[in-house]
Amino acid sequence: MLDEKICQAIRLLRKEKGLTQKDLAELSHIDKSYIGKIERQVYRNLTIQTLEKIIDSLGVTHEEFFCYALGLDEATVVING
Prior knowledge:
With 81 residues, the chain is mostly helical. It has helices spanning 2-16, 21-28, 32-39, 48-58, 62-70, 74-80.
């Protein structure tokens, strides 16, 4: 379930930022086909290092990314965190 939310968040944030898979691949130095497989949940063994590269390339903090992926409000995380 978490894998699915992370993969969906990558795709949705990429689109919100107006980036193509090719753009994200170039920014993160990850192969375009690999980005596509992650977004389609074909490849689920996503390493922390690869996820960090993608998050950084999307221009959001790690906290913002996971709040987005889990549908949480950042203020809620800070208050409860």
